Amino acid sequence: MRVLILGGVGNMGQGVARDLVKQKPVTHIVLTSLHPDPARLSAKLRENEKTSMIKMDVNDHEGMVNAFKDVDVVVNAAGPFYKTAVPVATAAVEARVNYIDICDDYEGTQILFDSEIDQMAKDAGITVLTGMGSDPGTNNILVKWYADRLDTVEAIYLYWVVSVAELQGAAWDHSLHMTLGKIPQYIDGKLVHVEGGAGVVEEQFLEPLGTCHLRYVGHPQPLTLPKYIKGVKNVIIKGALIPSWVDEMIKEQKETGFLGTEPIDVKGTQITPYDLALKLWEKIPEGRDNGPQSSGLKVIVKGDRGGKKVTYTADMVGRMAPGTGIPASIAALMMAAGDVTAKGVVAPEGCIDPDKFLGAFLSRGARIHQTEHIASMFELNS
């Protein structure tokens, strides 16, 4: 099994590669980067005989197609995905090679599902699996696992927290972009668009994260989960960057125009405020409280079973790179084993067997704190 990882030198790409190199079916991993400096790789990857590194530009369509033809699966870990998901998936379809990404931007996901890419992939007999990271990814599969144990699903709440101590590179672009403008949520059985960064709620996460204040964010699940979880009325996703000063500063930047995407003239030079803010955010956290080296997920699924109201909750906490990379690695191995049979564009909850995935995920040391609450007659009548 030969795998090519776009953005393989980055934090998330190395998270995928570190798991794949341990797997016997994997014979070679091609790590790509626009600037392929071996010094950026961890020693274990740099010195592993299974890995090699090449230069690749996601804007070079022909170069991608030619490289993709030599592998069995392409994993796109090169964000931000509102810029990269569509061109990389298009090249994979043309090369007739299975594709996985960790896309967490709803715009890329929407285009993949609604454009000709879906039919082209079906015609080519390949799978375009989008959103196979942590969020989206693992939490989508947990939703499916819980939904399969309910007669009906009423509401899905997906919450996440990322410490800026874990952010670098394209992750900063996504972190700002996901709050801009009107973003999708699925409310009362309809896809609606709400103001990004609004709707603040307080939620408790596992230690060391504690109590966090979450806001609406632009992620793909309100678009994908209703496709596969029939009858669901609400799919809400909210997130937070911690410490709390980070989200508060982003809110101020948004309100004062520092995240504007239209160029403005500054002493005869055209400057886009968003680009300037993004550059500054790479420096702003230096010397400040950057929070713990941890991120967290919370999944809440509410529904009905046997006439009783049931609520499932799952909590996880850990490092972002392995938490994002391992799910993509597991999916690649499942594809190679013939466990992913759907063709065309598909989300994790539409093609990944939850039991097989969670078994592999837990075998790698993942820990999921789960609860099941069944409402009593007293609660139902109160």
From TrEMBL:
Pfam family, one: Sacchrp_dh_NADP
Residues of the Saccharopine dehydrogenase NADP binding domain: 3-128
Annotated Saccharopine dehydrogenase-like C-terminal domain residues: 217-364
Protein name: Saccharopine dehydrogenase
The organism of origin for this protein: Desulfosarcina ovata subsp. ovata
